[in-house]
Structures
1.
Amino acid sequence: MGYVAVKGGEQAIENACNLFAYQRIKGGSRPLAVKQIEEQLYLLIDRVMGEGSLYAPELAALAVKQAAGDTLEASFMLRAYRTTLPRIASTLPGSTARMRIFRRISASFKDVPGGQVLGPTSDYTLRLLNFDLFDETKASAQLFRRFVEHNLRSHERLPDTFPKVIEILRTEGLIVNPKSAGYSDESDGEPFDITRESLVFPAARSARLQAMARGETGGLLLLAYSSMRGYGDVHPIVGELRVGYLPVVVPDPYTKAPRVAGEVKVTEAEIIARYDSGSGKPLFTVGYGLCFGQNEIKAISMAILDRAMEAAENNSPANDQEFVLSHIDGIESMGFCNHWKLPHYVDFQSDLDRLRKAQAYHADRGKEQKTDTTNSL
Amino acid sequence: MPIVEKSKKQTRQILYNFAFLDDVAKREIRRKILKAVAVPGYQVPFGSREMPIARGWGTGGLQITLSLIEPSDTLKVIDQGCDYSVNAVNIKKFVQAVTGVRITTDTTEATLIQTRHRIPEEPMTEDQILVLQVPYPEALREVEPSEQKTRAMHAEGDYGRMWLFLYEDIIHYGEVRLSYRYPVLVNNKYIMDPSPIPRWDVPKLNMARTLFLFGAGREKRIYAVPPYTSVEPLQFEDHPFRVESFAGKRCERCGAEDTYLDEIIAEDGVTRHYYCSDTSFCDKRRRT
């Protein structure tokens, strides 16, 4: 055989890249417009922006198109693009009470001040395939749009702000004060930034929340689910879940006055967990989650893990912050998982050498033992 | 600074800095490299950036390369000893696209070499830097899963468990089972993971003329072995460290008997062929 095992790879690699791009268009149907992806697959876009850690709906849609729908790949492209952008300013901290809400629910009270606002959700849909969508046309979509918009108009407009359910409980003295409860890092200082400093353990709470906000939805869900199922002791109640738009406020570079630069769609979850009666007055504890876009599973999972990582004992995976934070990043885990496809023949050669040595040793020892037994007979 | 050698047609592709990373990132990484050089074998945490190649595919090494590279550099990239293996081709293409530097396969010609899992067979000089890609920067991970604890173990020189691990292997198997990624003691101070180079390459790290830089992108660590630093594989007096044995075998292309060989199974599934892992060195020997 020739020397093909190592040479001539360059062209093959080029061809593999081209084949991947070809696969998407070879069927001959009309190419997807980026705008269509952005509007019609908006939950996918939301997820990709969150995991890609860059709020850019149009670029996220482009990434989804280029990645042929692979969320990990698409998020990865956004992250790589993010690296090339200079950081020109940091936003000013703002309260989520100012969120322009389109969905807001509380599972802890039947009714809450401001009311339950169900908004757009698939929660209450029947998961039956809607065969009508096979024949969806521009006209039929338009008709349905008019129908919904007409219905909405007959309802009152949503108020600009809603009171926060957790705050109501807090003023009643039912909820723990994060600072006095010894939650790590509840200082008012600068938040930790895991994109500029590598995570150190124990991690500051700001670092933990940031890591989770960039985390992979499935990974977060798995760990949060393990905690709620039994490998942990967080029994959460959703205090409040809200989805809406948050103003992005940055200081004016000249006057330092706060200026609204735009808004981002976010999901926020606050979960209430059973009280910690450590010392003193028994109080409920709170877990917090916030992520880009409408991604309720991610925000709730974050909140559960935020609470779980505050547990006194590392007796389950979700309680162990090093375990959680080191394994939830989709870009890192997918990259590393994929890397096993890279050649490892040098390493395997070394493995072979050790195994052959060990086998020889084993065989020798077998012979020795045999001679021993013969002698003793 | 945009790259200038591209035509106007490609303007959309050239809106990147020289060497991709922004200046602040480069400065940070260079500072972390200096710290790593000052404390040989110590893992310096850094703000690892996301790169357009995947985590686990050499992003740590790549960030070191990109923060050091200058337009006058000549770059060589190898993967498992080979200049044309997937990972090497990927990285080479990318670095070339964002810097325009000269690429070579000749070890002696390169000023900067990025490598995955091998140290070239040809000795390197003071004027060269070898950048190694690292998947697991923590040599103690084998015995301790927690980062918080391994950092404390390094700080306290608490290496008993590592020694015990090696000892137990020898008792059970007659041999330390660690094949590649063999732990070393650097400058008589820190136990270090030399990256997944075969044991064959470990002696090349000791008192070498070249600066070795190790980058772990996913794990966000940079560490270094400066020139003329002692690097000793962990071994016992009565059980010395041994490199892979290729006794009785030689490269079927260049005839070398003193290189790390790739074992290749022939089409019949039985016959084995052996070729140099360092392909450019093999080519060179064939030419001369």
2.
Amino acid sequence: MASESVPESASKSYTAGLKEQLMENRRVRFLVSPGSGLFWILLFLIAPLTIIVAFSFFKPGEAGSIVYELTLANYREFVSSSVYHTVIWDSIKIGIITTLIVLPLGYTLGYFLGRTESRWTPVLLGLVVVQFWVPLIIRTYAWITVLGRNGVINKFLTAIGVIGEPVQLLYTTNGMILGLVVSILPFMVLPVYSAVSTIEEDVIQAAKTLGASDARAFFEVTLPLSWPGVVSGILFTFILSAGSFVAPALLGGPEDRLIAPVIATIFTNDFNWPFAAALSLVYILFLAVLLYLFTRKADLEEALEGTQI
Amino acid sequence: MSGSSRWNWPAVKGASLLIYLSMLLPLAVVVINSFNAARIPSFPPSEYSLRWYGAFLQDDTFMAAIWNSLKVGVAAAVLSGAIGTATAMGFVRKQFPFKKSLAIAMLTPMLVPPVIIGVSSTILFVQIGWDRSILWLVVMHTLVALPYAFLVIRSRLYLFDESLEDAAMTLGADRLTTFREVTFPIVAPSILTAMVLSFVISFGEFTASQFWVDRTTTTVPVVIYSMVRTLITPKVNVLATLVLVVTTAIPILGIVVQRFVLSNAQSQ
């Protein structure tokens, strides 16, 4: 298609006028419009979340059907049954524990990558970035062979005589947390690396010239300057671990009932869509409150940009 | 240079080594075990062979899943690349109300747990009578990848020198030509990055996708999950190894192409 001709444009020699006029071209306007992306979000995220609000007030019928009759039964079931309180509380607990482990480990590696002078830095950084690219399901599945009764860890520990008998690692809470920690680590490493690597050598040296010890220079200069990276890492780590599905399903034990697998089971096995909707909304509401508190202290948009390097 | 701007360096190095070990060892075990001849693989393998690679290639379920994942991945990459570009340009170039909140709205797919994205969209689609098809995966993978594509392209556009466009238009180019000849070539590497990233995200997406697939549209991660949950077959190790190679190779290829495009653009 030929572009629409704009007869008057020849007479206007200054760009501002020309620019203004061509912005009238609808095809061009579409190219620089935020509308398409926001439309996609509205259609495929906001609309589904809105319809489950309605569904959460319906009754489940026989064999997965829905009875379109308003009821508070789903929410009453949530409020009265301590099972689901435990599920949400356990998810939050796993989120906090994972964050407490990922934070020091991820910071350490991010700090190492940010301050090392090794010429292998691009390769070492690449090995972390690669973790993002390999599907989560594969990185989690890989632990099964390592953690199993005849797995690498048990064989190694038996061989060096630390344990006499193989210990149960797979299908335990600890195994699940290990899988979660390692799969989420890059979300802490990369933002910390981005922040640490931009700290000038001179700034740290200045603190030391003024008499600060290595430790004090770290805690009073490096750590505060890398704080935005830490905040970003904490946000991702908590959200991904508290809402995780794959690690509890593949590595966790029967007692590890976290919110995501529980919603999936209610939806797929019990065919109770209204209750799955209600439970999803309760969790979304919890996340929304959490994110609101987050925005009071930090910039959410900046934190979400953190994994880019 | 003195290394004294670092704190506790030997401990940091030691811990970093262990972290690398924990990230890479399990993947290495999978790759090595894909060459394990045993039906019930133990590690280290007592005998190596390619028999499971042969069996894998004969397996129609796996082949269909790979084909589905590739189709969905390419479609989602193109869509989120295009939508991400338009949206990022809008956010960088235009002023509109609630810009800050709308930017966060663009990023919400990163915040909502994938299980809830999967469940809620399935309820909506079934409700409006849209049958499960590969299109479900395409539109929803585009949604999941969109925030990442948007961020990559937007951060590049922030660095873009708009006077280049003014120069082109002063010289008589219309806005479309300016976009094609000036803006696009400069932004193109980041669009490519965004598309590669979107492909990788789509290819690996499991948690939400398990609600979207049916027998004919099942994807690689869903097949891996159901195989692991039901019968562990050594063929899973083969598939995992191949996916590992492909998902690592594609971004590296992307970087190489990008470098090539960049150096060509600069030499002109």
